[in-house]
Every structure is written in structure tokens, then in C-alpha cells.
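pasting for the record
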Amino acid sequence: MTLTQARCWYELEERDDGLIRITEPHADKLVRANLWWLRGTDRDVVVDAGLGVASLRRHIPRMFERDPLVVLTHAHLDHVGGAHEFSERAAHKAAEETLAKGVPASLHGPELYKELGMEPDGQDLPGLLIDALPHTGYDPRTYRVDPLTVHRTLQDGDVIDLGGRALTVLHLPGHTPGCIALLEERTGALFTGDVIYNGHLIDDLPESDPPAYRRSLALLADLDISTAHPGHGRSFDGHRLRELAHSYLSTPYA
């Protein structure tokens, strides 16, 4: 398959209250994650960093005007690939070791599954996980995620102060040991990463822990959430979050 250069690699969607959703429309849905850019009075936070196929600094230079902190919700390629471009990175302590080694990464579906230790289970995996090139001459075979240093180690209950707004760290393991969500208690907005989104929740990775996942979702179901901003797909309200959590909790696991 011959790929052409994308006109725009990133898509930005302005939201209310100083929030921008950033997506990579040319990435396959398997690895098409959200970046959430939240602006405070004193500083900005970017929640997750995408695949890193195209430079965030080059394509969205205004994002870096106030030296934002990037918070990584967990250590998977579609959430940390562009993190090396930020001068300060934060993640849960349980994700530090994986990030320091360099997370498993490939733009080829079968190879990525092998890197992650997953079985396709009859799925027809896409050969290539992008449908355009970020720039002329880009070779998808060279894609990797370099080892990352975490500058700020997060734990459950930590508060990230942006000036005029604050985010509380919730450690919610299950999908991976280092999964976190960020709660803005003032508005009830929750940035969920891959803890919960409007789709099939993945709990069968080699690093996944279904019992821990159940405890994490039971905790979420009891919180007063107004809006969930997930790692994949569109935002949804607290009622839908509770529906999704209860649906998972009502399903027996092996």
C-alpha cells in the first residue's frame, strides 16, 4: 500500500472551559487516542501524548508556549509516543519502569500484538496502523517509542495545581498497574485515560489485573462525575460512566 502525506496530522477540537481535544485521525482505531490540553491560569497540562508519529511541537507550537506538564495516564504507545517533546513529564510510580525501558511499539498490527504479548484471537489485524504519512519520506518501519524519564512521580491523591483549577490523581489499576485518572473536583470532569471509555474495556493484557480493574471501576461508579473525557472516543456524562462501570462489574471473569 502506497501512502500519501497527510494534510493535517492532528485535529483540534476546542471545548468550553479552556479544554482542547486533540486526535490523530490517520491512526487506526486500535491506536487512535485522545490528547486533552487543559489551560490553567499559571500553567497548562496535556493529558497523554499520542503516538509520536508526528511532532507535536511542529504541528501545534502554541501548545508549548507555556511549557506544559504532560501527564501520562499509563504506559502504552498511543498515550506516550510524543511525551519526549515535553520538558516535564508526570506518571504514576507503577508506570516508571516500563517508561524507562521504552514501551513496546510498532505501527504494524501483528507485530504490535506480538510486542504486547497479545493473541489476535481470530481478529483480522490491520497490516499498517496509519493510513497516511506525517511527512514525505517517513518510513513506518522506523517507528519506536524511546525510553522516557519521569520527572514527577504521581501517587493516588496527589494534586496538580494549574492556577485557578486543580486535578486530583486517582490511581485506578487494572488495565495496567500504573493507570491513573485525573479529577477536576470543581467541575466534576474526569480524564479517564484507558480506565474507562465507551467501548470494550481491555483487561486481558499480560500486565492486566481483572480483580484490581473491578475495584477501580467500583470506585469510579461511586464518584460524582459530571463528564468523562476518555483516552479513546468521545466524552460522555456521568450517567453513562456509571452504566459502563456497572456493565463491567456485572460480567463474570474467568
